[in-house]
Amino acid sequence: MRWGRALTSFWIVALALALMLGAGVVAAKAQADQRAQWAKSKHANRLRPTLEATADGRRGLTAAHCGRCHSEQGFLAWLPQMQKGNSGLIARPDGSPADIQYLVSLGLSRFSVRPQTCTTCHQADYQLRQAGTTPLLPAGFRAIGVGLGAQCMLCHNSRNGAIVWNQEDPRRYTAPHTASQADVIMGKNVFFVDYGNNFISPHATFIGDSCVACHFRMSKAPHTFKVEVTVCSRCHGPDMTASRVQGPTKTLIHELEAALGAKILASKDRIRSLRAWDAKVYAFTETVTLDPATITSLHLIEVAGQQGVEFTLSGGRKIQTQIGELRDAAGRPTFATSDPIVRAGWNFWLVEGDDSWGVHNPRFVRQGVLNSLDALK
């Protein structure tokens, strides 16, 4: 009898150990798969934090701005601050501005900085650090009731404050930060459209977890955050593909791009000088006196967070600069900040930086682009 009970106990213990071992193997494999997927994502880019988030590198004190989202250490220092109501630059614990020494002590240095890893987004129990609703974002709004996508929106927003839609002079040449998905999906921060809360996309509020629903739950490799080509058909039927939205939207966006370029070229005779930007050294290098007759074409670009242009001159030389660095014969800005080009340019870069070509919020994008085209007439 004793031997029978002992044998039964032995097999129970053995089975429990086997189950624990099997669960451990499964968990280890799952974690390995997640890490392999993450390694293929843009979040794993180790060069970007070195360029964008190092206080002892090219960024200097501006690492307190870019380091918030372009590094793990910066984000983890900034998140509690934002959750307490300060979504501005990384600050010291007493609320005073961070200096180089403090930023380096956080790990924002060339030898210590890390990209976004598991612990950037996940707590020790694997739960996301933010869910449901965001704090006030650097883009000047809160995203309410967006599920797990709240984590994504902490960084994927325009980060340049709220836009007053009918403001005639924004008093700056700023471009929205490239990762402007939260603004677009929530229908925020465009000129010429009285957006309010009228343009929130159903993709933000009615599909459960917003960003996470399509970029994670419906993905075969969720930690790459790449959407499947067929993701739209999961909800909208087999005949609905992203290209059906993207095609017409690309046409509109390219029309706005062309209209902006034409408007600038129409005023090229007023351009007499500019400060040339060198992207390789990330700095202005020289002031160029320009014969406007030599400008043959232009391409819209972003230059250090500002709206910019790349001119092609006769002979093939290309010069990059910010729109605010174009000067007339008297040394004044060729285009004032009140010029519709500046506001329409913001709208262009907002929808271009969203990178979904309208899929996130087609009605909002279409209205913003159409109204921008009207403003340029």
Describe the protein in words:
With 377 residues, the chain is mainly alpha-helical. It has a domain at 30-126. Helix content is 41%, strand content 10%. It has helices at 2-39, 47-52, 63-70, 72-83, 100-106, 118-121, 149-153, 181-186, 202-205, 211-217, 233-236, 242-266, 340-354, 362-375; strands at residues 273-278, 283-289, 295-303, 306-313, 318-322, 326-327. A 3-stranded antiparallel beta sheet has the order 2-1-6, with no helix packed on it. A 3-stranded antiparallel beta sheet has the order 3-4-5. A hairpin with a 2-residue loop joins β3 (295-303) and β4. 37% of the residues are buried.
Percent in helix: 40-55%
> What structural class do helix, strand and pairing data support?
mainly alpha
Approximately what portion of the residues adopt beta-strand conformation?
Answer: 5-15%
General shape: globular
Topology:
Blueprint (H helix, E strand, L loop, with lengths): L1 H38 L7 H6 L10 H8 L1 H12 L16 H7 L11 H4 L27 H5 L27 H6 L15 H4 L5 H7 L15 H4 L5 H25 L6 E6 L4 E7 L5 E9 L2 E8 L4 E5 L3 E2 L12 H15 L7 H14 L2
Antiparallel strand pairs: 1-2, 1-6, 3-4, 4-5
Helix pairs in contact: 3-4, 12-13, 12-14, 13-14
